[in-house]
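Good morning C.,

I know you're traveling, so I'll keep this short. The sequence:
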Amino acid sequence: MSAVLHARPRSSASAFLDSAGALADYDAGKYCFSQLVREGEWAYWGETAIPKDYVLHHWARQLVFVDYVDDPGCCSQKVMVMTKAPISG
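The C-alpha coordinates, ready to paste straight into the viewer:
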Protein backbone atom coordinates (compact mmCIF):
# COMPACT_ATOMS: atom_id res chain seq x y z
CA MET A 1 0.00 0.00 0.00
CA SER A 2 1.41 3.41 -0.93
CA ALA A 3 1.57 6.24 1.57
CA VAL A 4 -0.53 9.36 1.05
CA LEU A 5 1.78 12.36 0.85
CA HIS A 6 -0.89 14.96 1.62
CA ALA A 7 -4.55 15.16 2.58
CA ARG A 8 -5.87 16.10 -0.84
CA PRO A 9 -9.51 15.90 -1.94
CA ARG A 10 -10.24 12.30 -2.93
CA SER A 11 -13.39 12.54 -5.05
CA SER A 12 -14.67 14.47 -8.02
CA ALA A 13 -18.22 13.17 -7.56
CA SER A 14 -19.39 16.61 -6.45
CA ALA A 15 -18.11 18.35 -9.60
CA PHE A 16 -20.55 19.86 -12.10
CA LEU A 17 -23.69 19.06 -10.10
CA ASP A 18 -25.68 21.13 -12.60
CA SER A 19 -24.62 18.90 -15.47
CA ALA A 20 -27.11 20.40 -17.95
CA GLY A 21 -25.80 23.90 -17.23
CA ALA A 22 -22.17 22.77 -17.42
CA LEU A 23 -22.77 21.01 -20.74
CA ALA A 24 -24.55 24.08 -22.13
CA ASP A 25 -21.63 26.30 -21.06
CA TYR A 26 -19.10 23.87 -22.57
CA ASP A 27 -21.06 23.66 -25.83
CA ALA A 28 -21.17 27.48 -25.89
CA GLY A 29 -17.37 27.52 -25.78
CA LYS A 30 -16.98 28.62 -22.16
CA TYR A 31 -14.20 27.66 -19.75
CA CYS A 32 -15.93 25.46 -17.16
CA PHE A 33 -14.59 25.05 -13.62
CA SER A 34 -16.28 23.31 -10.69
CA GLN A 35 -14.69 24.06 -7.32
CA LEU A 36 -14.56 20.99 -5.04
CA VAL A 37 -13.12 22.49 -1.85
CA ARG A 38 -14.50 25.77 -0.53
CA GLU A 39 -11.89 26.77 2.06
CA GLY A 40 -8.46 26.00 3.43
CA GLU A 41 -5.33 24.66 1.80
CA TRP A 42 -7.17 23.02 -1.12
CA ALA A 43 -9.63 25.84 -1.92
CA TYR A 44 -8.28 26.02 -5.49
CA TRP A 45 -9.01 22.31 -6.13
CA GLY A 46 -11.61 21.39 -8.71
CA GLU A 47 -12.45 19.90 -12.07
CA THR A 48 -12.14 21.79 -15.34
CA ALA A 49 -13.57 21.24 -18.82
CA ILE A 50 -12.13 23.45 -21.54
CA PRO A 51 -13.50 23.33 -25.11
CA LYS A 52 -11.03 23.17 -28.00
CA ASP A 53 -12.34 26.42 -29.50
CA TYR A 54 -11.78 28.24 -26.18
CA VAL A 55 -8.16 27.10 -26.12
CA LEU A 56 -7.57 28.07 -29.74
CA HIS A 57 -9.15 31.49 -29.23
CA HIS A 58 -7.61 32.44 -25.87
CA TRP A 59 -4.45 30.40 -25.36
CA ALA A 60 -3.17 30.63 -28.93
CA ARG A 61 -2.38 34.28 -28.25
CA GLN A 62 0.66 33.15 -26.24
CA LEU A 63 1.14 29.51 -27.26
CA VAL A 64 1.47 27.67 -30.56
CA PHE A 65 -1.04 24.92 -31.35
CA VAL A 66 0.68 21.57 -32.02
CA ASP A 67 -1.98 18.87 -31.93
CA TYR A 68 -5.42 17.88 -30.68
CA VAL A 69 -5.93 14.24 -29.65
CA ASP A 70 -9.49 12.93 -29.56
CA ASP A 71 -8.83 9.19 -29.53
CA PRO A 72 -10.30 7.12 -26.67
CA GLY A 73 -8.00 4.27 -27.70
CA CYS A 74 -5.01 6.48 -26.91
CA CYS A 75 -6.23 8.52 -23.94
CA SER A 76 -9.39 8.58 -21.84
CA GLN A 77 -9.75 12.33 -22.28
CA LYS A 78 -9.18 14.81 -25.08
CA VAL A 79 -5.70 16.34 -25.12
CA MET A 80 -4.61 19.72 -26.47
CA VAL A 81 -0.87 19.97 -27.19
CA MET A 82 0.65 23.44 -27.32
CA THR A 83 4.13 24.87 -26.98
CA LYS A 84 5.72 28.22 -26.26
CA ALA A 85 6.25 30.39 -29.30
CA PRO A 86 9.88 30.60 -30.44
CA ILE A 87 11.71 33.68 -29.21
CA SER A 88 12.36 35.99 -32.14
CA GLY A 89 15.69 37.73 -32.23
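Safe travels,
E.
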